[in-house]
Amino acid sequence: MTTNQKFNFRNYVKNTSLTVGVNPVIFSVSEDKLKVLLATFDPRLKKSLPGGAILKNENADDAANRVLQETTGLESIFLKQFHVFSEPDRFSYATVYNELHEESYKPPEDIDIPDRVFTIGYFALVNFDTVHPTGGIINVMSEWVDIDTIPELMYDHNLIIDEALSSLRKELFFEPIGYNLLPEKFTMPELQRIYEIILDKPLTRSNFQRKMLNWGIYERLGERKEGVSHKRPFLYRFDKERYDKAIKTGINFCL
Amino acid sequence: MTTNQKFNFRNYVKNTSLTVGVNPVIFSVSEDKLKVLLATFDPRLKKSLPGGAILKNENADDAANRVLQETTGLESIFLKQFHVFSEPDRFSYATVYNELHEESYKPPEDIDIPDRVFTIGYFALVNFDTVHPTGGIINVMSEWVDIDTIPELMYDHNLIIDEALSSLRKELFFEPIGYNLLPEKFTMPELQRIYEIILDKPLTRSNFQRKMLNWGIYERLGERKEGVSHKRPFLYRFDKERYDKAIKTGINFCL
DNA sequence: TCAAAAGTGTTCGTCCTACACCCATGA
DNA sequence: TCATGGGTGTAGGACGAACACTTTTGA
Q1: Do B57 and A13 touch (CB under 8 A)?
Q2: Could you tell me the CATH number of the domain that includes residue B104?
């Protein structure tokens, strides 16, 4: 036998019309709280995550970066895919219209509306101060919301945020990503707060300091933080070169 | 403003015709080697991973379990999503026809062939002896191949396997999943080989033993392994109850 | 009786924890 | 001068790496 006799194109290509989008869960830290960027599509509806479809010549990462750029203005920041959400009924393009009966939200009948929409969940870490949230292309506005006061959201977006947070915590053990939430120059106490807020548990100051320095991936700068009403802490910077070297020699970032 | 003025359905629904499938990377261990199940669609072509489209009423996990069942006969085994592969040109339905010019592989012109196909990568851990590989619904056959002699595969399947292995290694730090590769009753030396093979590095016998027992998630059975030409090792079984208890009290599975 | 492999114990070093102590700063 | 927070030192304990020793088995 040379040809595969089992194969029949008509059985193989299952024609469920489908769109795949991305939903970045954008984290930042401000006022000692972990925050997530939530979008408002229409003020009368529940909030949702920023998101968008994957366009013709994009891969998923491209799309996530684009959505991030549209809503925060930021490029090339920490962004990582963590899970696909694919329940058959997780999303419907008619939801908004069914809720509000606004003519402009009515799915037109002359274009093919996909039966299903999957979304690829991403999480991103950004420095709060560098972001001026906008609604991007789809939404009216977006805003930071404390992780522990997230309201009920559209679709399965509450679930997506839960999974994003637990993926973020997992990732902390493999990559020292916390510094992405801080400005380029930061102090050890600041970094410690990041870890405490993400992991939601207190860490011992002196030991935290020593561990971070032992990793040898942060460069201590000459300067110290100005304008604090007590001893001025050193400033540090993430050092990519040292990081790459540390990775090669095999390091683990367990806390 | 009540209505979202930015919104226009015609801009929002981007009509790229798209299918999403799953590709489980099925791992097992035999003859002291880590193996992956590879499928042959047509003997004249490169091999590939088992796979299939996500059907109408399935989510991604359902589809992956179905493909696994079709190719191995197994149900409810360890299976975990790890990444979506979404490059615009990663897959084409015409590939096989372009290669072989066999009429039966020609995409019919009267049905809509999707422009793009994404795949969700899964990895699965199975006990070698319980599997009798078949081609499943799509392929002619499937067979176990050593992880370090994987040939060049169709599409981006080599990349998928690489990512699967590194995800498997990562996951070892969060879940003690190695036992899934063994029969229900196993010995500590057997478990140690599993870890050594997956991580591709030797571990110290006595320390490994102690660590596994300290985790307290394996139950030592009364019996010992029969038919070995030296001291007979104890048999153990993974104990779900103890595992759940250990998780609650906060355990980490660092090696 | 012996080789091989399994189980257990011991030593040593490293790292983590907790706490103490001193330093620098603005109020 | 004092309260506050940052940097560093140290004693004690937990744990891992390496290795030694004993036990059990089939050949």
Answers
A1: no
A2: 3.90.79.10
Which pLDDT value is given to residue A160?
Answer: 98
User: What is the mean pLDDT of the segment spanning A42-65?
Assistant: 95
Last residue of a domain, one of A171, A195, A226: A171
State the pTM of this model.
0.94
Reduced to 3 states (helix: H, G, I; strand: E, B; else coil), residue A72 is helix
Statement to judge: residues A194 and A69 lie in one domain: no
> Is nucleic acid strand D under 7 Å from A32's C-beta?
no
Residue B125 in domain: yes
- Interface contacts (A, B; CB < 8 Å): 147
Q: Which residues of A90-127 are buried (b: 16+ CB within 10 A; e: fewer)?
A: bbbbeebbeebeeeebeeeeeeebbebbbbbbbbbbbb
How many CB atoms are located within 10 Å of the residue B101 CB?
A: 9
Are B160 and B25 in contact by the 8 Å Cβ rule? The answer is yes
- Bases of chain D below 7 A from a protein C-beta are 3-10, 16-20, 23-27
Contact A42 B3 (CB under 8 A): yes
- For residue A216, the enclosing domain spans 178-248
Closest CA–CA distance from residue A222 to any residue of chain B (Å): 36
* Chosen domain end from B171, B199, B216: B171
Instruction: Give φ, ψ of B132 to 5 degrees.
Output: -120, 95
Whether residue B13 and residue A93 make contact (CB cut-off 8 A), yes or no, is: yes
Q: Count CB-CB contacts under 10 A for residue B11.
A: 10
Q: Say yes or no: B94 and B200 in one domain.
A: no
Q: Determine if strand C comes within 7 Å of the CB of A231.
A: yes
- Looking up residue B190, the CATH number of its domain turns out to be 1.10.10.10
Whether residue A167 sits in one domain with residue A106: yes
Residue A225, judged by CB atoms within 10 A of its CB (0-12, 13-18, 19+), counts as middle
- Indicate the helix (H) or strand (E) that contains B80: strand B78-85
Q: Where are the alpha helices (DSSP H) in B187-239?
A: 188-199, 205-215
SS3 B109: coil
Q: For residue range B219-248, list pLDDT tens digits in order.
A: 999 777 877 778 899 999 999 998 988 887
Domain count, chain B: 2
Residue B17 has pLDDT above 90, yes or no: no
* pLDDT per position as a tens digit, A129-148: 999 999 888 899 999 999 99
B105 touches strand C (CB under 7 A): no
Nearest CA in chain A to B41: A4
CB contact under 8 Å between B44 and A118, yes or no, is no
Residues of B in contact with A66 (CB under 8 A): none
Is residue A204, in this structure, part of any structural domain at all?
A: yes
Do A74 and A156 reside in the same domain of the chain? yes
In a domain, B7, yes or no: no
Strand D proximal to B11 Cβ, under 7 A: no
Shared domain check, B60 and B136: yes
